[in-house]
Every structure is written in C-alpha cells, then in structure tokens.
Specification:
Order of helices and strands: EHHHEHEHEHEEEHH
CATH architecture: Alpha-Beta Barrel
CATH class: Alpha Beta
Oligomer: single chain
Shape: globular
Strand content: 15-25%
Structural class: alpha/beta
Number of helices: 8
Distance between the termini: 15 Å
Strand order of the largest sheet: 4-3-2-1-5-6-7
Helix content: 25-40%
Number of strands: 7
CATH superfamily: Aconitase, domain 4
Number of domains: 1
Length: 170
C-alpha cells in the first residue's frame, strides 16, 4: 500500500461557523442510507445551489466546528458522494471528523488556509506530508500530517475497505 494521495481541486467556501449536520443533510432525508440519494440533498439546508457548485469545485472550506450536531454518518457520506474530495476547516466537531475519516473523506484543520483561500482557488492538499498549496495564488499552508494509522484508512478509502484489506492479508 504505497499509493500517495494528493487531492487537487477548486475551492467551494462557506464562511459560516458551526455548520451542523442538519444543514449538511436535512433530517427529513435520513430515511435512506443510499449515498446517491443523500448526495442529491447535500447542503440543502444551507445552500440550494450546492449541487451545481460542486460539479466544478471539490475542496470544501469552512469555519470552525464544522459538522456539529448529531453523530450521524449521513453527513460526510452525502458530502463525499456529492463530489467533495477534502474539507479544510478551522475546526471540526469531533464525531464528524471521525465519521469522515471512517468513510475515507480527508478532513484537515488550518485556520490560516480558511482565512486566506478564496472561492474558486485551485488547491492541492497533501495530508500525508502536511501541506496545502494554493496553486492560484502561489501560497503554501502547513497542516499536521495524518498519523500513519489514519493515512492507511484514507489510502484504503475508509474503515470498511481497510478492514477488508487487512482480512485478506491474514
């Protein structure tokens, strides 16, 4: 398992703090766990234009305490299925952070990047080496590299894939 993951995309930015799971995926859609159905309604509680925006922009940037609210895993699933490749925020709600990692959606905290990145900037995120490159404005931001066990989860595409791969090895 030696594949490196560098995530490149254009920024879709939400300045709001405390974007909660009901804004990411409204509770009225929680009667399904189908990722494609969840993706259709992703961010509906905050931005009805999200489906159109995410077609061109795949790196989400937001303020502090992103993903607060319930512990539902539907929120990161909806974001990933909608096309978000990575989320950069000032901070994350703890359960959202872990749910995102468990499904293989890279999330990282960097206040400097959140304050500096603009909607539409092209960025490259390297969660393994610990940096975000703003390719549009030629700036680099430092982030904490993921610990090796989290790197393995991301490389495998999430906890389910990681466990399946480990079971093959044994």
């Amino acid at each position: 398992m030696n594949k490196k993951v560098k995530i490149e995309g254009r920024v879709i930015k939400y300045r709001d703090n405390n974007i909660d799971t009901d804004e990411i995926i409204p509770a009225c859609y929680l009667n399904t766990s189908d990722p494609k159905e969840l993706a259709k309604h992703c961010m509906e509680g905050l931005d009805r234009d999200f489906p159109a925006k995410v077609k061109e922009k795949s790196i989400m940037v937001a303020g502090r305490n992103f993903g607060s609210g319930s512990s539902r895993e539907h929120a990161p699933i909806a974001l990933k299925e909608a096309g978000i490749k990575c989320i950069i925020a000032t901070s994350f709600a703890r359960i959202f952070f872990r749910n995102a990692i468990n499904i293989g959606l890279p999330v990282t905290e960097c206040k400097e990047a959140v304050e500096d990145l603009k909607e539409g900037d092209t960025v490259k995120v390297d969660i393994f080496e610990g940096k975000i490159d703003n390719l549009t404005r030629k700036r680099t931001y430092s982030i904490s590299p993921f610990p090796s066990f989290l790197q393995k989860l991301i490389r495998e595409g999430g906890l389910d894939s990681y466990v399946k791969e480990k079971m093959k090895d044994e």
